[in-house]
UniProtKB/TrEMBL annotation:
This is Spermidine/putrescine ABC transporter substrate-binding protein. Signal peptide: none annotated. One of its GO terms (molecular function) is oxalate transmembrane transporter activity. Keywords: Membrane, Transmembrane, Transmembrane helix. Residues 1-416 form the Major facilitator superfamily (MFS) profile domain. SUPFAM superfamilies: MFS general substrate transporter. It comes from the Bacteria.
Amino acid sequence: MISSTDGAVTAAPLRTGFRWLQLGMGIVCMAMIANLQYGWTLFVDPIDAAHHWGRAAIQLAFTIFVVTETWLVPVEAWFVDKYGPRIVIMFGGVMIALSWILNSYADSLTLLYAAAIIGGIGAGAVYGTCVGNALKWFPDRRGLAAGATAAGFGAGAALTIVPIAQMIAASGYQHAFFTFGIGQGLIVFVLAFFIQPPRLSIPPKKKQLNLPQTKIDFTPPQVLRTPIFWVMYLVFVMVASGGLMTAAQIAPIAHDFKIANTPVTLAGFQMAALTFAISLDRIFDGFGRPFFGFVSDTIGREHTMFIAFGTAALMLLTLSAYGHIPLVFVLATAVYFGVFGEIYSLFPATCGDTFGSKFATTNNGMLYTAKGTASLLVPLASVISAAYGWKAVFVVAVALNATAALMALFVIKPLRRSFILGNEAESTEAAIAKTTAKTETA
């Protein structure tokens, strides 16, 4: 750390490891909110067994959580821009702890839904702040930084899935909610004291032809008026809907396929198919986010999207045809989540590249609301599966991912480049005209 002449604290120079420390703390905070989404599936059937509310009614809490988590991020991002990340993350830590404590006492759907709203507000505060902060600290490695931060959210549940499942089996889901809720919230609250944004402008190291980045910082109202934002929003929704459905319904799917408790042996490990699948899913999801972020820093955002979305479509097609085979179920879901999670690294990085760093937290927050829009399709998956079976749900998801892969190359890529180059040309012409006017006046 260094101090400015007016006494304000300024982030250490880029050559130090300070920004990596900030990234690491953001990753840990993200890991602490991961169970609110990815551990939820373990609680669905135990809650239903205790209260007989029905899967659809219980899964509505998941949808409420995701909608609240995502759609309020732009508001929370505004607080970050005004008051800094520390207070917003502290607030998030309190809210996620309160959410799971309420879940442990919920004896009605109303209280369950209220807890989902509180958890969504808290998780969104942490998620949006940490990803936005990573984009500001690493304009030269946006894909990797956003991917590593999002990996905390994707893989954070991997280490706790088995302990949560064991605690639910041993002492009930209420005890698991209460214990992990307090622990996760406390860790986020403490780390919030040490998180801060960069106080100096950090320029990208060099310009890459396959990785166009704007030199202009667009305000949120300007971003909302651009066609490229809404195209990216649409593709985000198309891809996110399948992943959210699978994450929320993986336990019911495994039970309906009658393989949930079937032992699966892989690489010397043996677990029940459902537990094995969820554990591997979190690991692959966590690894995939920084990996594809790094790849996108090298070959470009849209080419990476095409590879990931295409692979996702193939894995969903495999699940549709062979998901009733335990080993295939475990491996296909693992690979699917390995390529699904990259949307949480590629879209923030693409947003930062397209609209600039200054308002990156808010602009990315607006794009992130696409996840909330996609979550509205999760209950629909239960309805379709009840009428036509899970294969029909998978076929719809395959079509969405395949279409998104094509749109990445043939719509987003040319439109985004045209937007960046066009605005830079206009900015240059305006600067020249202003200089000329000043010269003539003199």
